[in-house]
Amino acid sequence: MAQTCNVAGAGLAYPVTHTVDQQDNYHGTVIADPYRWLEDANSAETKDWVVAQNQLTQSYLAQIPGRAALKERLTKLWNFERFSVPFKEGGRYFYSRNDGLQNQAVLYTTKTLADVPRLLLDPNTLAADGTVALAGLAVSPDGKYLAYSTAASGSDWNEIKVRDIDSGKDVEDHIKWVKFSSTAWLHDGSGFFYSRYDEPKEATKLADVNYFQKLYFHKLGTQQSADVLVYERPDHKDWGFGAQVTEDGRFLIISASQGTENKNRVFYKDLSKKDAKVVGLLEDFDAAYDFVGNDGPVFLFRTERNAPRGRIVSIDTRKPGVLNWKQIVPESSNTMVSASVVNNQLLVDYLSDAHSLVKVYDLKGKALHDVELPGLGTAGGFSGKRGDTETFYSYTSFTTPSTIYRYDLKANKSSVYRQPKVDFDPTAFETRQEFFTSRDGTKVPMFIVSKKGLKLDGSNPTYLYGYGGFNISLTPSFSVANLAWLEMGGVYVMANLRGGGEYGESWHAAGTKLQKQNVFDDFIGAAEWLVAHKVTSPAKLSIGGGSNGGLLVGAAMTQRPDLFAAAIPQVGVLDMLRFHKFTIGWAWTSDYGSSDNADEFKALLKYSPLHNLKKGTCYPATMITTADHDDRVVPAHSFKFAATAQADQAAGGAPILIRIESKAGHGAGKPTTKQIDEVVDRWGFLTRALHMDSGDATTAGQ
């Protein structure tokens, strides 16, 4: 074993967690669930348990030296001006700005780039503690109104309000019970389309399953009760709907998804015709189809149909059969992420070995040129109207704070629009990309970030991060939290595991359902490579990840407890037999499968972190994190995993702690103050678990 069961923090007195005689029969296999009572987050005994666990965790963390200095350094690093990518609508520019330590970014607008911007919406005024966040926004095409959605305490439940942009005041419109919704205005600004669920029970709204989403139209100046139902599918409770209106205002495009499956159906409605019906265009649910633009009835889509890495096709809605499709931009060796039509050109964003590559084509698919990017990083943005000659994008890398560029399409030239200044020297660090071989021979990339001149002697405290699911790609990005870790002498490693989208749909599919173990094998393979090449050693290696990445960490630490000294599963999916019974969990069966299916149950049981903890095992030092308002991955996952791990940890073993945030959710919209506190606790925990010099935290930045 890499670590002995005699470590700092051993012998903690964990809160007493009683068990119940709960057993479930899965296809003839009986599974005990002794901590089922912790699924009721509203019960008095669960709340008492949360208080007791938090007290233990905070008392343990408070004893770690250097935390005050680490918080001071993090706060200083975090205090830099940050901007979002601007967009233009109705003759105005819009962007958000955080002056440094504001809990939430503030929305501004301006008529020209040279004008002094005007504050339009400050979410910090919506709650004294910064726990109400701006979750989405849409400006009417005439530039008169802003429809904005807010989320309270990190919940996925949103409310939509409307602000008069000239006056800066809200009008009376108020939409509730919105979740996972776009907002799409009619061209004349008279109203917008949105998606919602039926009103839930107040007491259980953070846990109840979400089915039967419906698409509505809201006419400006009316009550929500008068909203018109545009589309629903009572025959498919698991369908969700996203809506957008074409730039010419003629068509409503409806994308119908089924959970998180990387496939969708497409319907449309001709808004120029009174009482026009919704028409099915792509109903086979055979691939992903992203609407890019249109020439009247001819639609452009980025699709993975017959092209796992993506291509662009045009479909004439008057003769939509597959044989009539025209290929505009073919599939290439790079992964096509997105596309937009600006300046009557196609701007196509690709991933090349998990970093950005942006190409420009004419509307017939002829390659014109690349957008020159500063280096090995991530670019995003490139939105605009067909007639625009400018667009904006952000560029970031592990050591480059997100910089905003204005791109002149006529001149094919980028210029810096906003560049943040952060209190650190980027030349002191280096990034390299390595490829390792996973268990089945697959080559998998990872990025290794460290101070320059890293000694390969196995002594470097290392934080290995991954995700590996839902077609989500991990690409280089700047993080103040990670920068502090690097300054402390830590190595940051990000692995691009299967299950993600870095190499297209085939890469994603190879890490789903019965092949999910590939993801964990990739992660373990990354760890083994780091040890073999003396970047680190098991006594200095920690792992972290959130949500699906929390599952990854839970699976890795239960499968290879000898390989890691510390583990931090954040808001993780840890009970793989019951995840689909809460909120939107059912939607994840496209990646995970379901315990309702006999074959998938067997696969899930083999790696479910909760069910693979074993009594008397020496597990790594573990800090599980969750939040009381997480209605994406309900905190019961973390509660039950923590209780079981504490009971199963070998005598004298490393600490098993759980950190439960209040008035927070899955992560989106978390106030700056809470983010800083969380990072201080994470790195503080690792300084002790990895036996880092107690002065490491205090020397950050020196």
TrEMBL record:
Give the InterPro entries listed for this entry: AB_hydrolase_fold (IPR029058), Pept_S9_AS (IPR002471), Pept_S9A_N (IPR023302), Peptidase_S9_cat (IPR001375), Peptidase_S9A (IPR002470), Prolyl_oligopep/macrocyclase (IPR051167)
Peptidase S9A N-terminal domain span: 15-419
| Catalytic reaction equation(s) | Hydrolysis of Pro-|-Xaa >> Ala-|-Xaa in oligopeptides
Q: What EC numbers are recorded for this enzyme?
A: 3.4.21.26
> What keywords does the record list, in alphabetical order?
Hydrolase, Protease, Serine protease
Q: Which domain of life is it from?
A: Bacteria
User: In this protein, which residues make up the domain named Peptidase S9 prolyl oligopeptidase catalytic?
Assistant: 476-691
Catalytic EC class: hydrolase
**Pfam families reported for this sequence:** Peptidase_S9, Peptidase_S9_N
Q: Which family does it belong to?
A: Belongs to the peptidase S9A family.
- Please name the PANTHER family in this protein's record: PROLYL ENDOPEPTIDASE
Quote the protein name from its UniProt record. Answer: prolyl oligopeptidase
